[in-house]
Amino acid sequence: MNRTPLAEVAAVPPQGAGALTVAVDGVEVGLYRVGERIVAWRNVCPHGAAPVCRGTVDGTRLTSAVYEYEYGRDQEILQCPWHGWEFDLLSGEHLAEGSAARLRRHPIAVIDGVVYDDAPVPARMRLRVTERVRAADDIVVLRLASPDGAALPAWMPGTHLEVSLPSGLVRHYSLCGDPADRSSYRIAVLRERSGRGGSAELFAESKAGLELDVRALRNRFRLREAKHSLLIAGGIGITPLLPMAASLHRRRRSFELVYTGRDLASMALADEAAALPNARLVESSLQGRPDLRALLAEAPEGTAVYACGPAGMIAQVRALAAAEGDRIQVFTEAFEGGEPEPSGHGPARPLAVELARSGATVRVEAGETVLHAVRNLVPSAPSSCEQGWCGTCETRVLDGEPDHRDRVLTEGERESGDTMMICVSRARSERLVLDL
Ligand code: FES
C-alpha cells in the first residue's frame, strides 16, 4: 500500500492513440492502453539509444512515427526509430525471428482507477532541508532534496510524506510543490500550540542543512476524474489542495478553490492560491466563514468535492454532503490531532481476529486496539498516527464486517468493507479475517 501513484487510468490515451509518458526515478516510462489493460514500457529501445514509438499494422500496412510500408502482420507494435526494430506491444518481444532482444517492462499495479509504480521503492530516504521560508504567522515552508542531488520518486497531488523528526516522533505532511519538479519536495509545517509536539519541533528546529529520514510516500487523497471539482481548504489544509488545483488548471478541468483562514497573515501559500483562476480566498475575521451549505448545494451534479482542514470543518462538509446524496462525491482529509470519529456503533466489544497468512487467531479485548493485539504476532504491522487519520495501518479485510472509526476512508470505501484502519476500527461481526 506504499506504492507511488503514477497516473489516473483515465489519463492514459485510448488504445492506438499513443502513450502517457511519466518519469520514474529519472527514467521515462510509457503507459499504453491495450484493451482493458495498461502496460508500461521503459521508453528506450534495448540498445539504449532512442525512445521507442508506437506503430500500428493495419492489414499489411505499417504506420509508425518514422515508417510506413507494406507488412505481413496484423498487430500493434512499438518501434525503435533508429534501427527500425519492432516489438510486440503486449509482450515487449522483438518481432524478428530468433532475436532475444526485448523492451524493458516497468512494473505497475492498477488499483481503483490509478496506475501505481510497483517497483520496490526504498523504505526510507534521507533528505536535506535546502530552504526554510516563513510562509505565515505560524507556518514555515520547507524544501527537501536528496543530499546527492538524485531525482526523487514521482508523486501525485494528495501524497503524504512521513517524516521522522530528530526526537523520534513521526509526522505526516502533504506535499505542496510541483509534481513535475523531481529535484525537491515541498512541505508546509504548522506550529500547533496545542498539538502533540511534532510539528512544533520541526517548526523550531528546522533549518537549511538539517537531514531528516523520510518514509514511503502515501496517497489517500487523490484527484478523481469528475465533471467539476470543488476544493475547500481550511488553514493549512491548502497544502494538498494547491497542487490539485494547479493540476486541474493545467489540464483545463473545471474547478473552484475556496481557501479560508483567519486572515491573510495566517494563510500560507495564499499568493500561489490567489494566482489560480477560480480561486476565492476568504478571511474569516473580515468576511465570516464561507457558507459550506450553499457551496455544496450549488455544486453541479457530478462534482467531486475535496475538503481539507480542521476536524470541525471536515465533519460539517461530510454531514452536508450526506444530504446531497449521490449528486456529489466527497473526499476529505483532516489534520492530525482532530477529534476521533464518533463511531455511532456503541461501546467496543471483544473480538477475534484471524491472521490469514499464518492462520493464527488473536483475541482483541474491549479496551485494546486491533493493531495492539495483532502486534503480538506481527510486530512489523505498520502504523503512524494511531488515531485513525493517516492511513498507514490500512489492512485488507478478507472476511467479517468492520466497524469503521477512522477519518480516512470514504463512505463508499467503508461500505465495501475491503480495508480498515486497524489502529482505531473494530468489528460489527464477532470475527474478522485480515490479510496479515
Ligand atoms: S496508524 Fe494512522 S490511521 Fe492507523
Task: Tell me what you see in this structure.
Helices cover 14% and strands 36% of the residues. Mean pLDDT is 84; it is low at 57-62, 65-74 and 337-343. The radius of gyration is 24 Å and the shape is globular. It has 436 residues and is mainly β. It has helices at residues 198-205, 238-250, 270-274, 284-287, 292-298, 311-323, 370-374, 411-416; strands at 4-8, 20-24, 27-34, 37-42, 53-58, 61-63, 68-70, 76-79, 86-88, 108-111, 114-117, 124-136, 139-145, 159-164, 170-174, 185-190, 211-219, 228-234, 255-261, 279-283, 303-309, 328-334, 351-355, 361-364, 394-399, 402-403, 419-421, 426-427, 431-434. The strands form 7 sheets. A 6-stranded antiparallel β-sheet has the order 15-14-17-12-13-16, with helices on one face. Strands 7-6-5-8-9 form a 5-stranded antiparallel β-sheet, with no helix packed on it. The structure holds FE2/S2 (inorganic) cluster. Residues 383-386, 388-393, 406, 408, 421, 423 line the site of FE2/S2 (inorganic) cluster (FES).
Helix content: 10-25%
Strand fraction equals 35-45%
The secondary-structure class comes to mainly beta
Q: How many extended strands?
A: 29
Number of helices: 8
Based on Cα principal axes, name the global outline: globular
CATH architectural group of the largest domain: 3-layer Sandwich
CATH topology-level name of the largest domain = Rieske Iron-sulfur Protein
Backbone CA Rg: 24 Å
Strand order of the largest sheet: 15-14-17-12-13-16
How confident overall, as mean pLDDT?
84
Main beta-sheet annotation? 6 strands, antiparallel
Organism: Lysobacter korlensis
Domain FAD-binding FR-type: 122-224
Domain Rieske: 6-117
Protein name: 2Fe-2S iron-sulfur cluster-binding protein
